[in-house]
Design goal:
heterodimer, A: alpha/beta, Rossmann fold, 3 domains, 9 strands, 49% helix, B: alpha/beta, six-stranded mixed beta sheet, 18 helices, ATP hydrolysis activity (chain A), AAA+ ATPase domain-containing protein (chain A), AAA+_ATPase (chain A), ATP binding (chain A)
């Protein structure tokens, strides 16, 4: 496999450094996988619980490689017309009426199915761009199975076939990132074409650094207490384990309330920020003797 | 050296992939080639990068990671032999190979656990396992010339890191914090976690050393943990059950999503002549735009009849939890538990109820036992038919969960046949392997004549069965 362009990153350490400069603190797993996705020219499938920074990763990669981010947000019922391209029917009609009778049928037909009447959607846009591009296909698990089939052509050959115009091949491969909350199993065919990254909660040290960089006003001791407490909460069997986003929110809440220690009262007052289910709060309070 | 593969690095990689396959991680040739490309792209001196890179190339699901990590440690060990650690194991006496000074060792361990220094802990684990195998502790006599034997059990019994908990917590506790408060509890759990991690380090280290002396294939066969979905219900131990419970929610969500897709596809019904003709008025009588009847999705009822006796405990816990998660999908789910007789336990399965507590309440609050507490299928079906037969309507599906071991009592096939006739579908999920059906006191084959019975030994099998059974 020969990449179409020279790789953007020199080494794994280089990835870590440049992502950090873009405000994303990457673990070894993240940095290595991003490096490989860039080197091997393969799409990156990122899976993991909500709020661990899957979308942020794509944004950070875009920023660190000075690429433009093209985002396809998937939802139930998304189709070709929303993901790939669409013909601008209104404009085509207008064109036909404008030249009524003056042109032959053949010329009109060739004309209305040309570049001018094509509305490119994210996938086609990403393929056609000549500048560095990061293609983010967000929450692919929300889309229907048919869309995966559509992605197969785009992601394995980096080309799109428009029946009226022919096949458009990428001049420059976009760096593709797919994210999934694994609400459903993706098809094997799609998974096989991607490098797989399971993005889990970061380890204590990394999480401390993330919180410190996002909420720099927090004191070191409080950050430490926050991270340790959240990690213990994750160890309980909860319906929704708190993620990094919740840790950061918690830090901001404590800051806003002017609390500088995480004592029992502070936890009791603000537990709702990290645990979003009533039953989780009850359980955590009971197990951690918060009464 | 026995560890070197005959075909160099590519051969070694292929061996590694083969080991993954035997543990249920489906790695195709394409992935193997990716993995090989990864080897060329990465700096092989960084072992953690190599680990993550290979994982990205060969894994496709997060549940496979544990198997991968264990096998990676076996096939790409961090060190050969004892390694060259910084940590010295204290000895009794001055000699370099004297007996291990257990008390001094525990002091070192306590200090490291207190500081949470993972790297040094790993070194300590390595040194301890090595020292114990070579010289034994004070209580054991030396056997010169014997093969070193690596034992996690011996090392952990000697160190008993759990007993250090109170000491470390005391050392770390802030003087202002009163014992028994929230912060105290958080600290306690954190230390407990560290200790558990240290135990894992010892186990990993022993596995690595054993692989060096006994061959890694043999160790890989026996010592690699199974993926949660492939653990058999009936032989799962507590830790595996906890992990299974965590897989319940994603599983139920996945099933629910697939059901929704099927419902949506089945939404369009047959042609609606009346509306099609009416629409054709506007196009001069040409039916340009046919109208279809909307199919009413039948919201089916589910009646679950579940054996909760001790012999199928792992299975019934798990299945009932899945049923609870599926409640959102069904307009009506009624759950009945039985041992010797049946009783309704639906009210215990409120949405959001504390999952692990539900089972205890089922056993405590429902009246399931009449006589000796051994399961009696015939009697249970009888009591179910007597009191709750109105729960079964032509719209309901009956799901029976159990191993069909009747303790040689009357299987009461007549009642089961009548119940099956009342319901729209009836299915039986049996956690025993098919070859054991009908052996001993199992009436599985006789029941299988009356209702379709499915083998359902693992979470993966359960998901398949439930998915194919659930009516749209």
């Amino acid at each position: 496999m020969s990449p179409l362009q020279s790789p953007s990153f020199g080494s794994v350490a280089d990835v870590t450094e440049r992502l950090a400069a873009a405000g994303y603190l990457a673990s070894t797993a993240v940095a290595t996988t991003v490096f490989l996705a860039d080197r091997l020219g393969k799409p990156l499938l990122v899976e993991g619980p909500a709020g661990v920074g899957k979308t942020e990763l794509a944004k950070a990669v875009a920023e660190s490689t000075k690429a433009e981010l093209v985002r396809l947000q998937c939802y139930e019922g998304i189709d070709e017309a929303r993901a790939l391209y669409e013909w601008n029917h209104a404009k085509q009609l207008l064109r036909i009426t404008a030249s009524q009778g003056a042109e032959s049928w053949d010329r009109t037909r060739d004309d209305v199915f040309s570049e001018e009447f094509l509305l490119p959607r994210p996938l086609l846009t990403a393929i056609r761009r000549a500048d560095p591009t990061v293609l983010l296909v967000d929450e692919i698990d929300k889309a229907d199975v048919e869309v995966e089939g559509l992605l197969l052509e785009v992601l394995s050959d980096y080309q799109v076939t428009v029946p009226e115009m022919g096949t458009i091949t990428a001049t420059r491969k976009p760096f593709a990132v797919l994210t999934s909350n694994s609400t459903r199993e993706l098809s094997e065919a799609l998974k096989r074409r991607c490098l797989f990254l399971h993005l889990d909660f970061p380890d204590a040290d990394l999480e401390r650094r993330i919180v410190a960089s996002r909420v720099p006003e927090l004191t070191g001791a409080l950050t430490d207490a926050l991270v340790r407490t959240v990690r213990v909460l994750r160890g309980l069997e909860l319906r929704k384990a708190p993620s990094v986003a919740e840790t950061i929110d918690w830090g901001r809440t404590l800051l806003a309330l002017g609390m500088d220690t995480l004592d029992d009262d502070a936890v009791r007052a603000t537990l709702g920020v990290v645990l979003k289910h009533q039953s989780d709060q009850v359980k955590a309070a009971a197990e951690l003797r918060l009464n | 050296m026995a560890l070197l593969a005959p075909h160099g690095l590519p051969g070694h990689l292929v061996d590694f992939v083969a080991a993954l396959r035997t543990h249920g991680v489906a790695v195709g040739p394409g992935e193997t080639i990716d993995a090989a490309t990864v080897l060329t792209a990465l700096d092989l001196l960084h072992r953690d990068q190599l680990r993550e890179g290979l994982a990205a190339a060969v894994l496709r699901r997060s549940g496979q990671r544990k198997v991968f990590d264990t096998l990676f440690d076996l096939y790409f060990p961090a060190a050969l032999g004892a390694g060259s650690g910084e940590v010295e194991v204290p000895r009794l006496g001055d000699a370099d190979d004297g007996d291990v000074d257990v008390d001094a060792l525990r002091d070192i361990l306590a200090d490291l656990l207190r500081d949470g220094d993972d790297a040094s802990l790993a070194e300590l684990a390595r040194a301890v396992v090595d020292a114990l195998a070579r010289t034994g502790s004070g209580a054991q006599s030396d056997r010169p010339g014997a093969q070193p034997s690596w034992s996690a059990y011996q090392a952990l019994r000697l160190l008993s890191p759990e007993t250090l908990l109170a000491r470390i917590v005391d050392a770390l506790r802030d003087p202002d914090i009163e014992p028994g408060s929230f912060s105290d509890e958080v600290l306690r759990r954190e230390i407990r976690d560290r200790i558990a991690r240290f135990r894992d380090m010892i186990t990993d280290e022993v596995r690595r050393r054993t692989a060096e002396t006994r061959g890694r294939e043999q160790v890989a066969r026996t010592a690699v943990p199974k993926q949660a979905e492939q653990v058999e219900f009936l032989s799962a131990y507590a830790g595996q059950l906890a992990e299974l419970r965590r897989t319940v929610h994603p599983l139920a969500r996945r099933l629910a999503a697939r059901l929704a897709v099927r419902r949506k596809h089945a939404k369009r019904g047959e042609l609606d002549m009346r509306r099609t003709l009416r629409r054709s008025m506007s196009t001069g009588g040409v039916p340009m735009n046919p109208a279809f009847k909307a199919r009413r999705p039948g919201r089916p009822d589910l009646v679950v009849l579940c054996d909760v006796s001790g012999s199928v405990a792992g299975f019934s816990h798990f299945t009932l939890l899945l049923v609870q998660a599926l409640r959102e999908q069904f307009s009506k789910v009624r759950v009945f538990a039985f041992v010797e007789r049946a009783d309704e336990v639906t009210h215990l399965f409120e949405p959001g109820a504390e999952l692990s507590g539900v089972m205890n309440r089922v056993l405590r609050e429902a009246s399931l036992v009449a006589f000796d507490g051994h399961s009696d299928y015939g009697g249970s079906f009888g009591s179910f038919a007597e009191y709750w037969s109105d729960a079964l309507t032509p719209r309901s599906s009956l799901l029976i969960l159990g191993d069909a071991r009747t303790n040689y009592r009357d299987p009461n096939l007549t009642v089961l046949r009548r119940l099956a006739g009342q319901a729209r579908h009836t299915h039986w999920l049996n956690p025993e392997p098919r070859r054991q059906w009908g052996t001993g006191d199992s009436a599985a084959l006789r029941y299988a004549d009356v209702v379709p019975m499915h083998e359902c030994r693992t979470a993966a099998q359960l998901a398949d069965v439930v998915e194919s059974l659930l009516p749209i």
